[in-house]
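Appendix B. Worked example

We walk through a single record from start to finish. Start with the input: the chain for RNA-binding protein, Turicibacter bilis, length 256.
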Amino acid sequence: MRLEHFNKHEYEFVTKVNDWIHQVYYSHKIKKTKFLTPREQQVVQVLVNEFEDVVVRFEGGFKNAERKRAIIIPAYLSGELFDQTVVGYEVQYHHRLVTIEHRQVLGSLTALNIDRALVGDILVLETGKIYVAICEEFASFIMQYFTKVGRHPISLLKVDIKGLEKLEQYEENEYIISSMRLDVVVASLMKASRSEVFEYMKQGNIQLNFKLEQNHSYQCKIGDVISIKRYGRYKLLAQKSITKSGRIVVIIGKTV
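Next comes the structure step. The output line below is what the pipeline stores for this chain.
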């Protein structure tokens, strides 16, 4: 393992993952992580690839889950199924009378002093139906204590979520920017100066493709995902045109 391949803020996680892998390699144990971000999953995969006798599976419950658990196992267990490591629930409520959003569900869960990493993706359908992926070890707790979203009473129904597909929904807007530099794009999204963005980045408040990013001169590409603390998550969807003055017209979607 060479730490120089990772950002400094990732060193602690990288060391932890390396310890997990060694436990599996030498003790032939199975290691199930909590839910990981896409970047954390990438780190786990890179480190596991250094070991011939260890493999990793990722389980998120939903068909194309973003947040997934890593199941690190000895290679001889690669034929085993581990899909029961994630439990799916439908959040039942009077959806014809009230509207509940993703942030409200997550807020109500974290208000129970629940580790965010125990909760996977939260899927809110246009029909109003809501589904949540949970670590199996946490199932009994959530059944007992997760009884309200805000002021609205709810009940939980255990369901099979493997066939449900998580699709991102975006509120799309056009932005006219001078370049595709990260600080320029973020300044437009925050309606802030580039110097303010620079300070915000130094404080660790901006992620690029689920990874903390402090290189303000990074050249953004279509498809990049930018997460800005207290502002939300954005995706560069398309470059529409270039103005006569050479400025770039881009379409950026904010996750809703």
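Two observations about the output. The chain has three domains: 3-82, 85-159, 170-255. Residues 104 and 234 are 19 Å apart (CA to CA).
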